[in-house]
Design a protein that fits this description.
Elements lengths: L1 E4 L2 E3 L5 E7 L8 E7 L6 E6 L5 E3 L5 E5 L4 E6 L8 E8 L14 E2 L3 E5 L2
Parallel strand pairs: 2-11
Antiparallel strand pairs: 1-3, 3-8, 4-5, 4-9, 5-6, 7-8, 9-10, 9-11
């Protein structure tokens, strides 16, 4: 089970760090991706981290990191713009390396956390 958190309201140019906590199983053996869905748009891949810690950027510039001791994956978002406003989801894939940004390749999903970038 995945629990995404850390969303909120932030001003343009600001930063936010989202967390994805795993419970019931370890995230260490999964590639973990972040997706987002803006109002009126389809869900899209943002970034992913492999089992070995390598980042794949599906779209943009947000860096993913993992803390295996805390069983948590983070999405660091800097220089935010209103275009980054969306519900952000974390998802775990049974692949070790980051798969293509296709939802069907991620087996487990968190519930989403809302990020609003506005002045």
């Amino acid at each position: 089970q995945l629990q995404a958190s850390g969303g909120g309201l932030v001003q343009p140019g600001g930063s936010l760090r989202l967390s994805c906590a795993g419970s019931g199983s370890t995230l260490e053996t999964y590639a973990v991706g972040w997706f987002r869905q803006a109002p009126g748009k389809e869900r899209e891949g943002v970034s992913c981290i492999s089992v070995t810690g390598g980042n794949t950027f599906y779209r943009g510039r947000f860096i993913v990191s993992r803390d295996n001791i805390k069983n948590t994956v983070y999405l660091q978002m800097n220089h935010l713009t209103p275009a980054d406003t969306a519900i952000y989801y974390c998802a775990a894939s049974e692949y070790s390396d980051c798969p293509p940004a296709m939802e069907s390749l991620y087996e487990y999903w968190g519930q989403g956390t809302l990020v609003t970038v506005s002045s």
